[in-house]
Amino acid sequence: MSTAPSHRGQKVARETFSSRKLFILSAIGSAVGLGNIWRFPYVAYENGGGAFLIPYLAALLSAGIPLLFLDYAIGHKFRGSAPLAFRRMSRPAEFLGWWQVLMCFVIAVYYAVIIGWAGMYAWYSTTTAWGDDATSFFTGTFLEVGEAGVSMDFVPQVLWPLIAVWVVTIVILVAGVRKGIGRANAVFMPLLIIMFALLVVSSLFLPGASEGLNAFFTPNWEALGDPTVWAAAYGHIFFSLSIAFGIMVTYSSYLKRKTDLTGSGMVVAFSNSAFEILAGIGVFAAIGFMAVAAGTSVEDSAAGGVGLAFMAFPTIISEAPFGAILGVLFFGSLVFAGLTSLTSIVEVIISAVKDKMGWGRRAAALAVTLPLAVVSILLFGTTTGLHVLDIADAFVNQFGILFGAFVTVVIVAWFARKLPVLSDHLNLYGSIKMRKVWIGLVGIVAPIVLGYISYQQFDAFLSEPYGGYPEWMLNTFGWGMAAGLVIVAILLTLIPWSKRSMLHDDSEYEAIKAHEDQLTGQIPVADSAQKEN
Predict the structure, then answer these.
(1) Distances in Å between the alpha carbon of 525 and those of 513, 517, 519, 528?
(2) What is the pLDDT of residues 280-338, one digit of tens each?
(3) Which of 184, 278, 314, 472 suits 2 as a labelling partner, its CA being 20 to 30 A distant?
(4) In the beta sheet, which residues pair with residue 525?
(5) What is the pTM of this model?
(6) Residue 180 in contact with residue 362, Cβ under 8 Å?
(7) What are the φ/ψ torsions at residue 12 (nearest 5 degrees)?
(8) Which residues contact 448 (CB under 8 A, 6 or more apart)?
(9) Pairs from 420-424 (Cβ < 8 Å, separation ≥ 24)
């Protein structure tokens, strides 16, 4: 087994998932997050309805799954957290791993507060505490949103659930990959699927559900001629599959060696897409009910993101038969989907610190999660949390994940030229074989698509100040944060690895590498035998 010295000088083995089933469950748990429930339905509706499924499937097959396999191959072959795996692949590429780790840091601090909101709204659903005006209740009574800026005025009904979310997250992550992440997903994912299936079935029987479904599935074929619709499909796939920000690199590094990588990836990708389409059915059936009840059109009632979850859905809950049950199912689903994703996001950071410093699980988990929790509570437990969240979310998604994915595929494919080696690894451990097609999709199609979308986003954000926020807030929590991630990633790369780190002492990785090099023909058997002697 792999050995790495802990901070006490003891040898500890690299953690692994106990089974392929738990890995798949955890990977699906990471991919199925808040965005599947509140982002996909609205993106699909806004971009051609039923016709959007064509660019969506094209994006899934031509970019989503190939890049998912790229993450799997890097993590599994180089057996490390994102910084360690990229460093082992090519030393100059290490900063890509730290860039992804820092993206996860930013996402984790605001992701937790949304789970806390959902937890409170599950409770509020039992009494429809928002009354007749869910929008005013959310921004006024619940969040107590103040002027744009940063304040230290804490909001108790936001603060305490946020603390609770971090306590649960810390307990899971301190317990480790098998006893923490694996067991949590084994419990949370079945609960999520059952609750969401019940929600969808209940929504389908609401009066007016067919109106919503017609709006969701009626294809607008003209939309297929609009490049922005295709860009939206590709952009959504990157967020949806948890690719290009270190999660799948980290999770695949915890896989046992002889695991079917490509087969597992297919199960994860199509399960994620099935959940998204199910979410679209459930959400638009409910929106159809709301539109009919209010005497408006589905177009006027449709919303996404925070607006859908905390403004539109409470209105539906207030008016629907058995609304309290619908509310508990909906917000409970958000809590479970959010927790499984949050643990995967924070694990990227823990794994990186653990590898770099050579620390044990508990020390690394506490060193990462406690500061994260403090930053999250200070920024998002206050009256200005919503403004900071909106800016940070927009910029880290567009100029962190998307632009970072573009830089990563360009460096891996065209500068490091590692796609043939990674293709060999996928073929060695995958039931679905690939080479030229996969290399072409990752090396040519993905950079073109990601480059185009990144250019679009730079142009849009530079043309008009995002969200009408003050310039200093955009420069601090938007552009400053996005640029700061790159600078800090480079600085972290320059810090020497601890002598106790996995980089310097991983005999299992060295043995596996030598064996695989023989199998893939990268090192002649005779040379390897000479090296061993």
Answers:
(1) 13, 9, 9, 5
(2) 899 889 888 988 888 888 777 766 677 788 888 888 888 888 889 989 999 999 999 99
(3) 184
(4) none
(5) 0.90
(6) no
(7) -125, 145
(8) none
(9) 421/77, 421/520, 421/522, 422/70, 422/73, 422/74, 422/77, 423/73, 424/520, 424/522
